[in-house]
Amino acid sequence: MPGTIHVEKIGKLGFGYMRLPRKGGAFDMAQINKMADTFLESGGTYFDAAYIYKGAEVALRESVVKRHPRRSVQIATKLPLDSAKSLKQLEERFETSLERLGTEYIDFYLLHGISARSSKKAESLGAWDYLAELKAKGLIRHMGFSFHAPPDDLEEILSNHPEAEFVQLQINYHDWNNPDIQSRRMYEIARKHNTPIIVMEPLLGGLLAAVNSPIADLLRSANPNVSMASWALRFVAQLEGVFVTLSGMSSFGQLADNIATYADMKPLSNDEQAVLDRALEALNAVPRIACTDCTYCVNGCPSNIKIPGLIGIYNDYLVHNTTTNLDGSYNWLTANSGKASDCTACRACEDICPQHLEIVATLDKLSALFE
Question: Rounded to whole angstroms, how far apart are CA atoms 134 and 165?
């Protein structure tokens, strides 16, 4: 039942395995191992992966499961409903996750990115009952879901499924009152249902920690001794009901900075909140595309276009109003994958995008700029 998770046994900072460091195109396992070890030494315990994060579950097995006592960590992964047509397919995906992770059980198992519509599909496939069965057998310890949809959908799901022990929500200071995301409203709904919350995208895919951001000077002048990321992490860490905040750390430096933030975690003061309010005004004045680099769009792209990377380049163009040095980045990124002009406008990317971005139109603009 909601509210029964023993949050005191779980480190408040979670290690997301979606944006792991790479070396030569492959995962940099030496750095990942070092990061996992340091994370655990700092008191962290929660590791998050997903069935559809390519290589993430295997990397978690190699860096954590094989190298540390299983009972010392919590492992989370997610069950996708996309393309599933039967309960048997869901069972096969769960078994695959167990094999990839090299574990006999999963601590936190999530229906991945569901809305009211996909929750109904989950019901028709028997997915909710299947998770309850897995829990009864001890194959998972907690069942819940991650969510990228309007708040009314969240209300419907939590009302219909009180068996959900937790919910994973996108919350950050940029999206708190954003009418497209409505993080605050989703947070309030979860609190009303007494459902423990895991926060994802606290840094909005790194946008809230970018050193060249238009708010960088503002935050540095307010406190030159802390990182931009620390402001965003402190914003979500102070929210009641949040028991883990996930950070998709892609370098040891990012890990060290996040650990330092949590080692001396303090709620934002009124003056600091005012600084964030001014920072948000500055961010809203820049027409950036709020891509979180989840890579869902890449998996189904028939032209093999690295969409998040291209959107990142386009965002840099919007902020700096120049293509200087960005053309090199564009050519490097598209050297072994599709160019923006290869888009066929099939819109498979837009159908799966959690942020509901107009990807096809953006690729057309990129093509005009860089090709």
Answer: 14
Residue with tokens 């290869």, as numbered in its chain: 342
Look up the domain containing 194 and give its range.
Answer: 7-284
Judge if 107 and 50 occupy the same domain.
yes
For residues 234 and 3, the answer to whether their CB atoms sit within 8 Å is no
Its sign, for the CA torsion 237, 13, 195, 293, is positive
In a domain, 182, yes or no: yes
Residue 213: band (very low, low, confident or very high) from pLDDT cuts 50, 70, 90: confident
For residue 128, give every residue at least 6 positions away whose Cβ sits within 8 Å of its Cβ, in sequence order, or none: 111, 122, 161, 163
Residue 290 within a domain: no
Whether 7 has a pLDDT exceeding 70, the answer reads no
SS3 content of the chain, % helix, strand, coil (to 5): 50, 15, 40
Residue 207 has pLDDT above 80, yes or no: no
Question: What SS3 state is found at 236?
Answer: helix
Q: How far apart (Å, rounded) are the C-alpha atoms in residues 222 and 116? A: 42
Pairing assessment for the beta strands 26-27 and 22-23 based on DSSP bridges = antiparallel
Give the angle 118-122-125 at the CA atoms, nearest 5°. Answer: 135
Coil, strand or helix at 244: strand
Instruction: Give the SS3 label for residue 262.
Output: helix
pTM for the whole structure: 0.82
- Could you tell me the two tokens for 327? 């053309």
R_g of the chain computed on alpha carbons: 20
